[in-house]
Design a protein that fits this description.
The structure holds two protein chains of two kinds. By secondary structure, chain A is an alpha+beta fold. Chain A has four helices and nine strands, in the order βαββαββαββαββ. In chain A, the strands form two sheets. In chain A, strands 5, 6, 7, 8 and 9 form a five-stranded antiparallel β-sheet that branches. Chain A has a four-stranded antiparallel β-sheet with strand order 2-3-1-4, covered by helices on one side. The mean pLDDT of chain A is about 95. Chain A has two domains: about 70 residues, 2-Layer Sandwich (Alpha-Beta Plaits), CATH 3.30.70; about 70 residues, ACT-like. Chain A, domain 2 (Alpha-Beta Plaits, 2-Layer Sandwich). Chain B is an alpha/beta fold. Chain B has three domains: about 170 residues, Thiamin diphosphate (ThDP)-binding fold, Pyr/PP domains (Rossmann fold), CATH 3.40.50; about 160 residues, TPP-binding domain (Rossmann fold, 3-Layer(aba) Sandwich); about 190 residues, Thiamin diphosphate (ThDP)-binding fold, Pyr/PP domains (Rossmann fold), CATH 3.40.50. Chain B contains 23 helices and 20 strands. In chain B, α1 packs across α2 and α3 packs parallel to α5. The model of chain B has no long low-confidence stretch (mean pLDDT about 95). The interface between A and B is medium-sized, with 19 and 19 residues.
């Protein structure tokens, strides 16, 4: 089971290492982790997608809360939330496939960042599911390189 | 006019009422040592930084105050690591100060540089690398606050050399509030009410109390609860002393080497009330079969301890003292008369016992005699292994903070420096280190510390020539293949372990070692000499090493094999 956890932390050196070390030290599996400043520059928000059952998630929450630099842990198991992830992909493309790729990217509101005679670079955002389906549709054209940001999320309301 | 970093550190130590610092100097902390030279803070020079960490830990366990240790950068700091991990596992308040190379050189692989905040992150409650002297006052204030509040633990502060010299005008703060750290002390009344209702209904309740009881200082409240409700109490190793073992409802220690009656009680109970304990595997055995018929209540200040190892039905997050005070106001006793009678019978039927011998000294006998000769009024520290379990089983602990032992990490070499720390805190008390011949050697160099500071610690070595606990496992579960556990093994040993073919050279000769350090050394071979030796040791005001030559292959019983259910207890003596 995948869970999304949003963690507000003090923006201090070493805080990422503390969180990452907690996961590795206690044997929790991270699917993705993003971190960036919030509206208050003294705090950062980490969005962590963790794989595990409810008991694991409960421990993840508690152990995160136990870290001194963690201000708040929000577990999106019960709260409804919005999420987004960004993907950038470099694909093989030639005159035959180019327009098909652009069409698919359009359906997903993707953007073309760069085009050459052999390659095309696409950017798209959306939920993790949506990004996954775009990748699946484009995979047959040949993905040369890909970078995903991992999910960021905020509670609704 | 500002203050240098080193001056700020001294001011902080004074304001935090630190009376003793255990440490070892080095290039990166000379500025701090220079300040200590004319200071009213007592400095104790150890002979290895691990000793400093354990001494600070022993001081903290014996007093409840924050223990402070000080080491230089690189190897000095890495030598603290075992001591920090020991304190972390047992939730002991400590502040470790260590030097670091100048900020401009951090990351350059400079001489005696180590990334000590990186290394100690998983074994400290929190740690700091101070890169700006203006942050130093706040950092030290936070460190003492974090170390001693909530679920306590060690905090390390890494102090680059230039920070110790740099000047700041920022004053040392008087108070502190942290938005990211606010431990919950007050137990929720609804949860306390639920617990009270469960107690009223329970027919076979048991209290299982751990180290958190001592940290909270809730022993009086516990006694009141037991007086009101007649619930028997078993403690963990770390909980020893939080409930008088002389009380008729004391079940002594539970778990792997716990008393049979404690383990029976836990297996039969219908309401297990855990207070400041964490369901460690050495306590529960096979967790799926632990307290199978019980509703589990758990009082703990650390929410992450609750439902970590098994599902808890009545969680109460809060300080044990606060929760018990609230509980005592509303609790009504259930009908436990029949249960108490069962327990009384179990205690009669299955006492903690050993087969005594007319000539050979049994290690348990030595512990019993230490109890008798001291009238139970001594601080007992232990090393780790058989000595630790016998010390736990055969001394009757009645006072909080009387028993100092590395429970979670199980650190051999802990006991002696911890005893030194306790003796520093209580110069007039009797402090015994109940030791094994193996673990004592892990920090034997601290004899110099004890002697130089005139600390009359009494070391009682239960010398069986083996790393006894591992040997016991090898005897019981590995067909007596004593691999790597014989301390007398000589070149060409044919693994024929009997008195005749085994080496008889004393390695080391503890009496000579003691004398080499200007301590008193005694060797005791005969049972009738045990008591006179103890009496003599107590009479002298010097550091004493008593080398009790005990039965070589004595085992610790009862024993629950690792990973087995508490039902599968080996009693050993029938």
């Amino acid at each position: 089971m995948k869970h999304t956890v949003s963690v507000l932390v003090e923006n201090k050196s070493g805080v990422l290492a503390r969180v990452a070390g907690l996961f590795s030290g206690r044997g929790f599996n991270i699917d993705s982790l993003t971190v960036g400043e919030t509206q208050d520059p003294s705090m950062s928000r980490m969005t962590i997608v963790v794989n595990g059952d409810d008991a694991v998630l409960e421990q993840v929450n508690k152990q995160l809360n136990k870290l001194i630099d963690v201000v708040k842990v929000q577990d999106f198991k019960t709260a409804s939330f919005v999420e987004a992830e960004l993907v950038v992909m470099k694909l093989h493309s030639n005159s035959k496939t180019r327009s098909e790729i652009v069409q698919i990217a359009d359906i997903f509101h993707g953007k073309i960042l760069d085009v050459t005679d052999k390659n095309i670079i696409i950017e798209a955002t959306g939920t993790t599911d949506k990004v996954d389906s775009l990748i699946n549709l484009l995979r047959p054209y040949g993905i040369k390189e890909m970078a995903r940001t991992g999910k960021v999320a905020l509670a609704k309301g | 006019m500002g203050k240098t970093g080193a001056e700020i550190i001294m001011e902080a130590l004074r304001k935090e009422k630190v009376e003793a610092v255990f440490g070892y100097p080095g290039g990166a902390v000379i500025d701090i040592f220079d300040m200590l030279f004319n200071s009213d803070i007592n400095f104790y020079l150890v002979r290895h930084e691990q000793g400093a960490a354990h001494a600070a830990d022993g001081y903290a366990r014996a007093t409840g105050k924050v223990g402070v240790c000080l080491a230089t950068s690189g190897p000095g700091a890495t030598n603290l690591v075992t001591g920090l991990a020991t304190a972390y596992m047992d939730s002991i308040p400590m502040v470790a100060l260590c030097g670091q190379v100048p900020t401009s050189m951090i990351g350059n692989d400079a001489f005696q540089e180590a990334d000590i905040t990186g290394i100690t992150r998983p074994v400290t409650k929190h740690n700091y690398l101070v890169k700006n002297v203006d942050e130093l006052p706040q950092v030290i204030k936070e460190a003492f606050y974090i170390a001693s509040s909530g679920r306590p633990g060690p905090v390390l502060i890494d102090l680059p050399k230039d920070i110790q010299k740099a000047v700041t005008k920022v004053p040392y703060p008087d108070t502190i509030k942290m938005r990211s750290y606010q431990p919950t002390y007050e137990g929720h009344i609804k949860q306390v009410e639920k617990l009270a209702q469960a107690i009223k209904k329970a027919k076979r309740p048991v209290i299982y109390a751990g180290g958190g009881m001592l940290i909270s200082g809730a022993h009086k409240e516990l006694l009141e609860l037991v007086d009101k409700t007649n619930i028997p109490v078993t403690t963990t190793l770390l909980g020893l002393g939080c409930f008088p073992e002389t009380h008729p409802l004391s079940l002594k220690m539970l778990g792997m080497h716990g008393s049979q009656f404690a383990n029976y009680a836990v297996m039969e109970t219908d309401l297990l009330i855990s207070i400041g304990a964490r369901f460690d595997d050495r306590v529960t055995g096979k967790i799926d079969e632990f307290a199978p018929n019980a509703k589990i209540a758990h009082i703990d200040i650390d929410p992450s301890a609750i439902s970590k190892n098994l599902t808890v039905h009545i969680p109460v997050v809060g300080d044990a003292k606060d929760v018990l005070q609230k509980l005592n106001k509303i609790v009504e006793p259930g009908d436990t008369a029949e249960w108490c009678e069962t327990i009384r019978k179990w205690k009669e039927q299955y006492p903690l016992a050993y087969k005594d011998d007319a000539d050979i000294i049994k290690p348990q006998y030595v512990v019993e005699k230490i109890y008798e000769v001291t009238g139970g009024d001594a601080i007992i520290s232990t090393e780790v292994g058989q000595n630790q379990m016998w010390a736990a089983q055969f001394f009757k602990y009645t006072h909080p903070r009387q028993f100092l032992s590395s429970g979670g990490l199980g650190t051999m070499g802990y006991g002696f420096p911890a005893a030194i720390g306790a003796q520093v805190a209580f110069p007039d008390k009797l402090v015994f280190d109940i030791a094994g011949d193996g673990s004592f050697q892990m920090n034997i160099q601290e004899l110099a510390t004890a002697v130089c500071h005139e600390l009359p610690v009494k070391v009682a070595i239960l010398n069986n020539g083996y790393l006894g606990m591992v040997r016991q496992w090898q005897e019981l579960f590995y067909s007596k293949r004593y691999s790597g556990t014989c301390l007398l093994k000589e070149k060409g040993c044919i693994h024929n372990c009997d008195e005749k073919s085994c080496g008889s050279t004393l390695i080391p000769d503890f009496v000579k070692v003691a004398e080499g350090y200007s301590a008193v050394g005694m060797r005791i071979f005969k049972k009738q000499d045990v008591v006179p030796a103890l009496e003599e040791a107590i009479k002298t005001k010097r550091t004493v090493v008593m080398d009790f030559v005990v039965a070589k292959e004595e085992n610790v019983f009862p024993m629950v094999p690792a990973g087995a259910s508490l039902r599968q207890m080996l009693s050993g003596i029938s």
